[in-house]
């Protein structure tokens, strides 16, 4: 969360239950990842990631992104869970 992405960047992948087939999930627009699904099972049409996009990003937006990344790093460091994120 809080990561800047460009259109076409791979955000993760979807695999079948046995892991034999993997389909990449790509960003459909450039922006900042502000949300993601942690559910292990998804169906077609569900939102997996939420990307906030800006028509004209400026220095203020870049500063805010850096602040969010720092906060999320602290939150993740204090996490009670030792599990890797589900992507």
Topology overview:
Layout: E1 4-5, E2 10-15, E3 22-26, E4 31-36, E5 49-52, H1 59-77
Structural commentary:
- The chain is of the alpha+beta class and 87 residues long.
- Helix content is 22%, strand content 26%.
- Strand 2 and strand 3 form a beta hairpin.
- The mean pLDDT is 79.
Looking across the biggest beta sheet, what order are the strands in?
1-4-5
The shape, in one word, is globular
Strand proportion, as a percent range, falls in 25-35%
Radius of gyration: 15 Å
- Helix/sheet category: alpha+beta
What's the main sheet like? 3 strands, antiparallel
Can you tell me the residue ranges where pLDDT is under 50 for at least 5 consecutive residues? none
Spatial gap, N to C terminus: 12 Å
Please summarize what this structure is.
The chain is of the alpha+beta class.
Descriptive terms for the model:
alpha+beta; globular; 87 residues; single chain; 22% helix; 3-stranded antiparallel beta sheet; two-stranded antiparallel ribbon; 1 helix
